[in-house]
Amino acid sequence: MTTPRWLSTEEQQLWRMILSAVRKMERTLDETLVEKHQLTTSEYAVLVTLSEAGDHDMRLRDMCQALDWDRSRTSHQITRMDKKGLVSKVKCAGDARGVIVEITPEGERRLKDAVPAHVEVVRKLIFDPMEEGHLEGMHSYLTAVLNSGSCVEINDKRSAEL
């Protein structure tokens, strides 16, 4: 058994601050979308993804990749949104197992109504508090975190170091 590389006091404080900041961002965005627009953040993410797609539609498997969600989560989310009339599911021509997800006019309307408030919350919560140099530093740091590999790769790398 290997000895954990414990966090220093400063690292522990920063880690807890990161967790608190992420929870605050998620909670604030959720509250804005649900209370003002009756959309969850997951629904909003799907609608944005579809609105940015060429024909406002996308194969389900491509949507999984675009959202970085597993197939089960994506499929359940799309089914719930289909029942609400925000998206529709269509069989893929030439592939009986494939599903195309399309944004509906109601989905487009709800997204269009929600975007201004969502962007304003993002601006106030994330960008307004930034000072000179924060944007570049955050971009660099988050890029490094995102490029650090999957959980399995990180754990395998750590085991190899020991």
From TrEMBL:
User: SUPFAM superfamilies in the record, alphabetically?
Assistant: Winged helix' DNA-binding domain
Q: Which UniProt keywords apply?
A: DNA-binding, Transcription, Transcription regulation
User: Care to name a GO molecular-function term for this sequence?
Assistant: DNA-binding transcription factor activity
The lineage's top-level taxon is: Bacteria
Question: Which SMART domains does the entry link to?
Answer: HTH_MARR
Domain HTH marR-type: residue ranges = 11-147
Instruction: Specify whether Ribonucleoprotein is a keyword of the entry.
Output: no
Q: Which InterPro entries match?
A: HTH_MarR-typ, MarR/SlyA-like, Transc_reg_Sar_Rot_HTH, WH-like_DNA-bd_sf, WH_DNA-bd_sf
Key word Transcription present: yes
Which residues, if any, are the signal sequence?
Answer: none
Gene Ontology BP term (one): response to stress
Name of this chain's protein: MarR family transcriptional regulator
The organism encoding this protein is: Corynebacterium crudilactis
